[in-house]
Specification:
Radius of gyration of chain A: 22 Å
Largest interface: A-B, 28 and 26 residues
Distance between the termini of chain B: 42 Å
Distance between the termini of chain A: 53 Å
Helix content of chain A: 40-55%
Number of strands of chain A: 17
Helix content of chain B: over 70%
Oligomer: heterodimer
CATH topology of the domain at 57-113 and 154-288 in chain B: MetI-like fold
Largest sheet of chain A: 5 strands, mixed
Number of helices of chain B: 13
CATH topology of the largest domain in chain A: D-Maltodextrin-Binding Protein, domain 2
Number of helices of chain A: 20
Shape of chain B: globular
Radius of gyration of chain B: 23 Å
CATH class of the domain at 57-113 and 154-288 in chain B: Mainly Alpha
Strand content of chain B: under 5%
Structural class of chain B: mainly alpha
Shape of chain A: globular
CATH superfamily of the largest domain in chain A: Periplasmic binding protein-like II
Number of domains of chain A: 2
Strand order of the largest sheet of chain A: 2-1-3-16-6
CATH architecture of the largest domain in chain A: 3-Layer(aba) Sandwich
CATH class of the largest domain in chain A: Alpha Beta
């Protein structure tokens, strides 16, 4: 299969052949998706799929370069925060009509928050392929030692547990680890609030809202009260070892760590860790609707065949097999019913969380804004900014990043 | 006329692959070329010198300049000192296995930066690193090399100097070996000590080479990028963001090519000014001799 893919890639000159679907996929997904495609090609004798694998680290650059050079693929796996960006480039094909006519893709079967990440304004640009959200991983044995048998459901419960762990005063142990080079945990806490991150249709920052203040104070408080080790000293590369050694009880992370922990933790610790949905301010809270989608490019040659590929990869049983190959969590409720996934006790918390996921702001500038959130938060944790200063600073930086967007939107309404 | 024909191919290549892109970048630096302009050129706005003015108002840009200057001011003397020291040791008549040590000390220059950066990350690890292990024996507490904003740049400097000193060492070694032996013999006959021979024979004869080496090293060190890119991604608290790293993020991460081009030209002006200064100082000192 790989050999045919290589040969096919070698004959890239036949770009106009509508029976060849050029499919770009990233990382691990790109490696294993070919195993699913044999079946598709047997079912559709006239269609051949050329898979090109991109490393995640270079994918964004490569896609933009491909766009600039007008050599975009037909179908592509796209991180769902990238969808607004490529929609702004006018590179993606709107999918509303195709989805409405599809017998395979049923929007109601998808988790609502995930489906919404593919909408920019009223238009749908992608179909979710797999989902990614952030939940709580914890050491159930250490939590029991601190006197708790169930994970926290709300912020007050969570704080009480962290305080109990701190009181135990075990040398070198912290309640939680929050690497300052990740913005996702704080963004997830901020999405739990009523106030959106941006206001006026994504024209201005909304970080001076009461909701963001609450999330940031809660997050920074974890460091101030000594529940989390101070910034910088957490070496993320050793996360699994340190978790196994009991240096911290909680961490916030995504689905891939289920597989990592099963593989990396020694056998005697396998019954000592568990996952839980993310606690909210007063009861189970929301988390980030992340993941990757399948998109059809506007300049695709054979759109019907390309759409068939997207439909094929969206079938629930194909998604179950895809989960078995990658560990990626499927975006359809029906794919979760039955199979190995339904029995996986570590995945259960993700299933519950996925009913409560919210999209991050759908503006092309989001990644940059998220990066500023990370940088400013790092300064709060370090004590250089107060909460209020950080809020003002974030709004100022965000408003500046969105300046061109505002100008273009203003021009659209007054031509 | 015939001469023009001979240099034409070279000029053509330089023109297409160097002059043209530079001029294009200069033009882009006066626009707000970004993602939206990539989608539709109608979204491109002429910005005049606004990119430059904005950069000069951006605290992070100045922090990047400060970090880079710190890296150059500490790193260049350290690097040249290490190169000169190693070259002197190698050229000493007492040195054994000279070619072995010359190769060994040159090795870091030719190794892949990313691979050795991974090794250095292990060496610098707070809890398990060899460097903190050794320092611990001398009573120094564990230093969070790459996580503490005060120590991240020194760690980067240490790594960069180790990686690059071998190159200058080879140049200086060649210079040392070309100093005529009889100058030293004459000095010794006059009763000059080892230190006096170094200060009054070695340094003056080596001065032109030292000048070249320092100009090249300063220009190279101003373009600090790969070390923080691989080791710290500019962190912690942006203490290792260099000018070039800042430019990379503006241009290729956020796709603000207008502003990134402006950074490139500002960096060019910096390096140009400093090199001009160095050349002038070097000329004057040669004339003074």
């Amino acid at each position: 299969m790989l050999a045919t893919a290589l040969i096919a890639a070698g004959c890239g000159a036949r770009h106009d052949d509508p029976s060849v679907v050029r499919f770009w996929a990233m990382g691990r997904e790109g490696e294993v998706v070919t195993q699913l495609l044999t079946e598709f090609e047997q079912a559709h004798p006239g269609v051949r799929i050329e898979v090109q694998q991109l490393p995640w680290s270079a994918a964004h650059e490569k896609l933009l370069t491909a766009f600039a050079g007008d050599v975009t693929p037909d179908v592509c796996q796209l991180g769902n925060t990238w969808v607004p960006e490529f929609a702004a480039l006018n590179a993606l094909e709107p999918l509303d009509a195709r989805v409405a006519a599809s017998t395979v893709i049923a929007p109601d079967d998808y988790f609502g928050g995930i489906w919404d990440t593919n909408r920019v304004g009223p238009t749908l640009y992608g179909v979710p392929w797999y989902v990614d959200t952030r939940i709580l991983f914890y050491r159930s044995d250490l939590l029991a030692q601190a006197g708790y048998t169930a994970p926290p459901r709300s912020w007050p419960e969570w704080l009480a547990m962290l305080e109990a762990i701190r009181r135990q005063d075990v040398a070198g142990r912290y309640g939680i680890v929050l690497p300052v080079n990740e913005f996702e945990p704080l963004v997830a806490l901020a999405l739990q609030q009523e106030d959106p991150l941006l206001r006026e249709g994504g024209r201005l920052g909304n970080f001076e809202s009461a909701g963001f203040a609450r999330a940031l104070s809660f997050y920074a408080g974890m460091f101030r009260k000594g529940y989390a080790p101070p910034a910088g000293s957490s070496e993320a590369s050793n996360l699994w070892n340190e978790f196994g050694r009991g240096r911290f009880v909680f961490f916030i992370s995504g689905p891939w760590n289920i597989g990592e922990l099963k593989r990396r933790l020694p056998q005697h610790l396998q019954s000592s860790w568990m996952t839980a949905p993310l606690p909210g301010p007063d009861g189970p809270g929301a988390s980030i609707a992340g993941g990757a989608s399948l998109v059809l490019f506007r300049h695709a040659r054979g759109k019907p065949a390309a759409w068939q590929l997207i439909e094929f990869l969206s079938q629930p049983d194909v998604q179950r097999r895809f989960h078995a190959l990658t560990g990626d969590l499927p975006p359809r409720r029906s794919a979760w019913a039955g199979g190995a996934l339904a029995d996986d006790e570590h995945a259960r918390a993700f299933r519950e969380q996925l009913e409560r996921v919210k999209p991050t702001p759908r503006v092309p500038e989001y990644e940059r804004i998220a990066n500023e959130i990370r940088l400013v938060t790092e300064r709060v944790v370090d004590g250089q900014f107060t909460i209020e200063q950080a809020q003002r600073e974030l709004d100022a930086r965000t408003d500046r990043i969105l300046e061109k967007r505002r100008a273009l939107l203003a021009r659209e309404t007054t031509p | 006329m015939a001469a023009w024909w001979f240099v034409a191919p070279a000029l053509l290549v330089i023109g297409v692959f160097f002059v043209l892109p530079v001029l294009a970048a200069l033009a882009i630096s006066f626009t707000d070329f970004d993602l939206y302009a990539l989608a539709d050129l109608a979204n491109l706005r002429f910005a005049g010198v606004r990119n430059y003015v904005r950069l000069l108002e951006t605290p992070l840009f100045w922090q990047a300049v400060g970090n880079t200057v710190y890296f150059v001011v500490v790193g260049v003397p350290l690097s040249i000192g290490a190169s000169l020291g190693a070259a002197l040791l190698l050229s000493s008549p007492l040195a054994r296995l000279q070619s072995f040590f010359r190769t060994a000390l040159f090795t870091p220059v030719v190794t892949t930066l990313v691979a050795v950066a991974v090794i250095w990350r292990y060496l610098l690890s707070t809890r398990y690193g060899m460097i903190n292990f050794v320092l611990g024996h001398f009573g120094f507490g564990p230093i969070d090399w790459l996580g503490d904003p005060h120590w991240a740049m020194p760690a980067i400097i240490l790594f960069a100097v180790w990686k690059s000193f071998g190159y200058n060492m080879v140049i200086l070694l060649a210079g040392l070996q070309s100093i005529p032996r009889d100058l030293y013999e004459a000095a010794r006959v006059d009763g000059a000590s080892a230190l006096q021979r170094f200060l009054h024979v070695t340094v003056p004869t080596l001065a032109p080479i030292l000048a070249i080496v320092s100009i090249l090293t300063v220009a190279g060190y101003f373009q600090l990028f790969a070390e923080p890119y691989v080791m710290t991604q500019g962190g912690p608290l942006q203490s290792t963001v260099s000018v070039l790293y800042f430019m990379y993020e503006e241009g290729f991460k956020w796709w603000n090519l207008g502003s990134a081009s402006a950074v490139a030209f500002l960096l060019f002006l910096f390096i140009f000014a400093i090199t001009a200064l160095q050349v002038r100082v070097a000329r004057r000192s040669v004339v003074a001799q």
